[in-house]
């Protein structure tokens, strides 16, 4: 890897990266971590810290990935639409990708401002392009950026295509690519701006999923300095909301995320300003979206306190709400699909049983829900899709996009709040009704961080240790079933680095490495809160 470092030191032209490379000289540990591998093009594309090196996000790794995508799509129509979020360097990376595509003869459409990820998914089909690129690291800390690829159906590339792109990237000599002629390509019309009319078409598609007007409620909203700043207030206003108060410090795009260094709306510190403001103004509901506006977190104010709902709770509420409204209107819910990821609450099965819904369990990652929608479309059965959601606060109603959409989720949650308020109920009241009706399940997520090469090796050691000696007990709980998704399984799910352990008392522990961060994730579900103690003691034991 020293040879690769020396090559970069000699070939890199971009001034900031060149300075970073020079500053590394003599720091063998930093050089090793920056160059010991090429940043993986995984199931969510690229994701990494922005810095110099093959294991980092920079204009050269973005250019190499783009060339890999071009080579994978060598045949057929050559057109692409590119969007980017509010992160530092996102626009630069988008322009770099646009340049590589234009140089290779693609018709290129480039967003003129920060773009929600679901809007990019919409644009692929609306503009009928063969591929879409979204520059985003979603909810990761500000040091990160990423690069997602969408196929012509508006869905993220499937696993086989991702592997094919990775092979092509490995053959690319990035220093042979011209990434300095962006302005020339714009002047020659090879790179065109996305027309504003497209945004109007997107908001119309979102509003087509509307259930009822948003009336007589107060909403406080935070875009967390991301791409939702325009779309979410626009749709809420068009749907009838008369009172939307914005968190001013987090209202506009800012890649430094000054008031929320880790801009994940699931984190309490990221929501602190939002919750404080919502309590102060007595909001009925508060909403936060992440930097690329695909995740949405909601909460309410009750007795002067902010109550935030996790993804399990919000998904159960939304499923129950959509099915109830359809039933109230005399519409059949029989055979409609609700898609969820395997780590998402199983209370959905109880709700589905009452309404005749079909629950589909899929691997973690909203791309699998997008693929399911595409499969329904291929049979002309997309009208059977009711809702898809995941525990990490991703939601989608409708088939106008193939990825989670915080804009439609914000609209539906606001409508849900308005709907129940007419009956004198808060969302907490409705959630309690759901628990009384179907039984209470509680959930917890434990994430352990493993940075660098040594961290990765330790994480793999933990997983290999479980696989070589599957547990008979989880603390005080007897194990009833053990499933390793790297092997053929009764769930008929594709091969994946996931371990599922089900125990007595309906307790369940799912273990998987994150696809976007150096994390090992433990998902816990139980009816009895005391059973969490057993699962946590097992986790402490295997961590060593």
Features:
alpha/beta; 544 residues; 3 domains; Alpha-D-Glucose-1,6-Bisphosphate, Chain A, domain 3; globular; TATA-Binding Protein
Please outline the helices and strands.
Elements: H1 2-11, H2 15-24, H3 28-35, E1 46-49, H4 59-72, E2 79-84, H5 90-103, E3 107-110, H6 117-126, E4 131-135, E5 144-151, H7 159-169, H8 182-187, E6 191-193, H9 197-207, E7 218-222, H10 228-238, E8 243-246, H11 268-281, E9 285-289, E10 296-302, E11 305-309, H12 311-328, E12 337-341, H13 347-355, E13 358-362, H14 366-378, E14 385-390, E15 394-396, H15 406-421, H16 427-438, E16 442-449, H17 452-468, E17 473-474, E18 477-484, E19 499-503, E20 507-513, E21 519-526, H18 531-543
Parallel strand pairs: 2-3, 2-4, 3-6, 7-8, 7-9, 12-13, 12-14
Antiparallel strand pairs: 1-5, 4-5, 9-10, 10-11, 14-15, 16-21, 17-18, 18-19, 19-20, 20-21
């Amino acid at each position: 890897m020293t040879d690769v470092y020396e090559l970069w030191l000699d070939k890199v032209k971009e001034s900031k990266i060149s300075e970073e490379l020079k500053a590394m000289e003599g720091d063998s540990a930093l050089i090793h971590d920056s160059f010991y591998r090429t940043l993986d093009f995984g199931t969510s594309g690229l994701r990494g810290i922005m810095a110099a090196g093959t294991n980092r996000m920079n204009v050269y790794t973005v250019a190499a990935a783009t060339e890999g995508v071009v080579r994978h799509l060598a045949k057929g129509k050559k057109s692409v639409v590119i969007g980017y979020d509010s992160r530092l360097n996102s626009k630069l990376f988008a322009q770099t990708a646009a340049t590589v595509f234009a140089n290779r003869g693609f018709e290129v459409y480039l967003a003129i401002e920060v773009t929600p990820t679901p809007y990019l998914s919409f644009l692929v089909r609306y503009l009928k392009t063969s591929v879409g690129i979204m520059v985003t690291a979603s909810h990761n800390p500000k040091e990160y950026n990423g690069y997602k690829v969408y196929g012509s159906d508006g869905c993220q590339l499937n696993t086989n295509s991702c592997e094919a792109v990775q092979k092509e990237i490995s053959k690319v000599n990035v220093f042979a690519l011209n990434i300095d002629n962006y302005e020339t390509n714009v002047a020659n019309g090879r790179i065109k701006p996305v027309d504003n009319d497209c945004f109007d078409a997107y908001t119309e598609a979102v509003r087509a999923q509307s259930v009822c007007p948003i009336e007589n409620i107060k909403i406080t909203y935070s875009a967390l300095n991301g791409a939702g700043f325009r779309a979410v207030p626009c749709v809420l206003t068009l749907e009838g909301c008369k009172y939307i108060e914005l968190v001013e410090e987090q209202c506009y795009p800012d890649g430094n995320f000054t008031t929320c260094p880790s801009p994940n709306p699931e984190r309490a510190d990221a929501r602190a300003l939002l919750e404080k403001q919502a309590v102060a103004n007595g909001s009925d509901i508060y909403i936060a979206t992440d930097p690329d506006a695909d995740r949405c977190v909601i909460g309410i104010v009750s007795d002067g306190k902010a109550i935030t709902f996790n993804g399990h709770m919000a998904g159960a509420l939304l499923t129950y709400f959509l099915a109830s409204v359809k039933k109230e209107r005399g519409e059949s819910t029989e055979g409609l699909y609700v898609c969820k990821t395997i780590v998402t609450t199983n209370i959905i099965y109880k709700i589905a049983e009452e309404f005749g819904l079909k629950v589909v369990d899929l691997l973690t990652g909203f791309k699998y829900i997008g693929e399911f929608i595409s499969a329904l479309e291929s049979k002309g059965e997309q009208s059977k899709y009711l809702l898809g959601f995941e525990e990490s606060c991703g939601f989608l109603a409708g088939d106008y996009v193939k990825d989670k959409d915080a804009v439609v989720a914000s609209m539906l949650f606001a409508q849900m709040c308005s709907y129940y308020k007419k009956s004198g109920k808060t969302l907490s009241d409705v959630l309690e009704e759901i628990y009384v009706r179907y039984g209470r399940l509680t959930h917890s997520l434990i994430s352990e961080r493993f940075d660098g090469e040594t961290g990765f090796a330790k994480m793999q050691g933990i997983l290999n240790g479980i696989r070589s000696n599957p547990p008979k007990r989880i603390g005080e709980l007897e194990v009833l079933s053990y499933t390793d998704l790297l092997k053929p399984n009764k769930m008929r799910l594709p091969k994946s680095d996931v371990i599922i352990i089900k125990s007595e008392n309906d307790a369940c522990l799912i273990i998987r490495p994150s696809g976007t961060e150096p994390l090992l994730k433990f998902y816990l579900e139980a009816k009895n809160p005391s059973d969490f103690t057993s699962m946590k003691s097992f986790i402490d034991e295997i961590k060593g």
